[in-house]
Structure formats: C-alpha cells, structure tokens
Design a protein that fits this description.
Elements lengths: L3 H43 L1 H4 L6 H19 L2 E5 L6 E5 H21 L2
Antiparallel strand pairs: 1-2
Length: about 120
Amino acid sequence: MMSDKDAIEVLTEQVIKLKQELAEYKSTFKLMWDANTRGIKLWRDENPNERELVWPDQGRLVKWLLDQLTAERQLLDIPLRMTDSTSGMTLTMTVRDVAVAEQNFRKQSQVVDKFGT
C-alpha cells in the first residue's frame, strides 16, 4: 500500500504532466486560431459588404484559400515580352523567371558588396 506522501508525489507529478499537456494544447489551439483568423480576414476582404458578419465553413475556406494560391501561382507563369530598345532583340520570360533572376542578382550583389569585387 502506498503511503500518503508517495500518493501526493504521484499525484503532483500527474498534475505537472497534465499542466504541460494543457499548455501544449493551448499553444496548438492558438496557432490554429491565428491561422484561421488570417484566412477569414483574407476571405472577408475580398467582399467585405457581404462577408463582414459571416463565419465561413472551414472546408470552404480552405478550398477558397487553395484557389487563391493556385491563381497566384498561375500569375507567375504569365509570359512577359521584353524588347531591348537599342538592339530590338525580344526576350520572353515569365514573372517567375524574372523573380528568380532578380533573386540571383541580389545574391551576387551581396557577394560583391561583401568582398568589394
């Protein structure tokens, strides 16, 4: 049979463990709540007059967000035609290509700034 002191120690350990679990659940809930709130704000911003007081269905909100992402990604693949005014040479690149080129240029510029070459 367990003494009262041992029982109190076991119960104290269980309480500490349960408090830690509760803190983890609260943290997870807050992350999910914040993400959901950001998604709802984006959804409402698209049509504020009709959606101001509406709380969207979670599944429909996720689908809407995925549709927005798909549309944004499609914009990255739109071809851009650029013509050099001096040579008349035409170059076709997508927005994604331009963004990658700009990123590479920035990285090279940082190297040049760092080493002075």
